[in-house]
Amino acid sequence: MSTKAALVLAAGKGTRMHSDRPKVLQTVLGEPMLAFVLAALEPEFGEDVFIVAGHRHELVEQAVPHGRFVLQQEQLGTGHALREAMPALRAAGAESVLVVNGDAPLVTAKVIKDFVAQAQKADLAFATINLDNPGAYGRVVRQDGHIAGIVEAKDYDEAKHGVSTGEVNAGLYLVRMDLAERLLPRVGNANRSGEYYITDLVALALEDGASVKGIVCGNDESLLGVNSPLELAGAERILQERINRALLESGVILHSPETVRISPFASIEPGAEITGPCEVTGRTCIGSGARIFANCVIRDARIDGGCEIRPFTHVEQAHVGRGALVGPYSRLRPGAHIDVDAHVGNFVELKKSHLGPGAKANHLSYLGDAEIGAGANIGAGTITCNYDGKNKFKTAIGAHAFIGSNTALVAPVSVGDNATIGAGSTITKDVPEGELAVARQKQRNLGKYLKK
Ligand code: UD1
Ligand code: CA
Q1: How many CB atoms lie under 10 A from the CB of residue 251?
Q2: Per-residue pLDDT at 449
Q3: Partner of 411 for a Cys bridge, out of 170, 342, 379, 393, CB 3.0 to 4.6 A?
Q4: How far, in Å, from the CA of 160 to the mean position of ligand 2?
Q5: What is the pLDDT of residue 1?
């Protein structure tokens, strides 16, 4: 077997999840299960990975923008899913296909590589694992130690098949295309579920005289399937432990690691420090010496070394530079860039805005679509009014400008370098460099006011 492709089965609804969302999009540490399976296949299969989608396929397609999809319009079972994918696999020139369930988020590139290496010589190979309680998994049936077939849990009859040894089908197969082509039309649906089972290929292949290999993976957790909320939580716990252990061993400091949830796609340098409870998801990068305090939620962000993200701060698709201080209670939305040594304090929200080096916005502000120069001071309660109900406009604030408290900057507007705005101003016109602008009613003191 040389030219091989991979096929991920991801068309099922996942009835046992009691959710509208396709099961493979349920998340583990912030990432859809399908993403883990695809990441594990990438090193071995590169571009030659196909995904069978069906139930709410448009959502699955959205989640994998560059995926190669096959549609299984009606979900008639895993064997039917493979059958529907055969034309695409054939067109890709595959001589053999690795099929994997899309609900196996713990699978790793190493598991795939080792399986493929061991499966090479067989016409059909599948991975088996051993469970204390075989539950809903397909039971592996052997005769004199040799594989005889896989019998699905619902169809398993102890009187006929004997007491299960606990060896079950893991949902990972490698099969020669010519064999699959020959056998798939013979897979029927006369079983308890009325579905076409991919697992029936095993007995059919044996009947056909093909070489069938069960690759024993023992109690490897990497191939556990996720069918219910309980199993999802179990997988998440295993993965969390795996990731946090690797990070601790590499030199990342984690306080209360059991409460720190870090995506496998995040990259955290040794010497970074994170206190739980805390969530770091997506492709977040955290540099050495950065400190993330408790109750922060960080997604797809870049946090440079030596900065502090203080408690209860949310950061999404934003960049925090070296030496910056953010929080407590700050919110950095997509496109926020907090430059080196800048400060962002409590109840300050930034969106698509650059806070220049050493600039400060310490209290109660909204800064949207703003370019703020180095060393500027944004007073408490400053708002950039960037939206007129239809369009967004930009605000520019020069270096070392001083914006008095409770200022509204009605965009588009600019404030020059070293300019000062008096507190409580509503600024609608540009303020030149170095000038003082005050835009509020003059105070009138109206003499003594006597209460009756
Ligand atoms: C399947 C195996 C079982 C094995 C277990 C391992 C079959 C018949 N059974 O059972 O032997 O022990 O996995 O976890 O294969 N799917 C489709 N199209 C369909 C039906 C399912 O793409 O028509 C996809 C699902 O989205 C899922 C995968 O196939 O990702 C497996 O389906 P699932 O219903 O979870 O099978 P299990 O009952 O777990
Ligand atoms: Ca499953």
Answers
A1: 12
A2: 87
A3: 393
A4: 24
A5: 42
pTM: 0.93
Mean pLDDT (whole number) for 139-157: 96
Q: How much of the chain, in percent, has pLDDT values that exceed 70? A: 100
160 CA → ligand 1 middle, Å: 23
- Tell me the C-alpha distance between 307 and 297, whole Å: 16
Active site residue 363: yes
Query: Average model confidence (pLDDT) for the chain?
Result: 97
Domain boundary assignment for the chain: 4-223, 246-437
> What is the residue type of 445?
N
> What residue's CA is closest to ligand 1, atom 31?
101
CATH number of the 4-223 domain: 3.90.550.10
Q: At what angle do helices 33-45 and 109-119 cross, to 10 degrees?
A: 50
Among 41, 78, 82, 202, name the best residue to mutate to test ligand 1's pocket (greatest count of ligand atoms within 8 A of Cβ).
78
Query: In the predicted model, is pLDDT for residue 2 greater than 60?
Result: no
pLDDT higher than threshold 60 for residue 69:
yes
Q: Could you write out the DSSP letters of every residue in 171-192?
A: EEEEEEHHHHHHHGGG----ST
CA 63 to ligand 1 centroid distance, Å: 20
Tens of pLDDT, residues 48-66: 999 999 999 999 999 999 9
User: Which residue's C-alpha comes closest to atom 20 of ligand 1?
Assistant: 77
CA distance 446 to 429: 30
The burial class, CB within 10 Å (0-12 / 13-18 / 19+), for 271 is: middle
One-letter amino acid identity for 20?
Answer: D
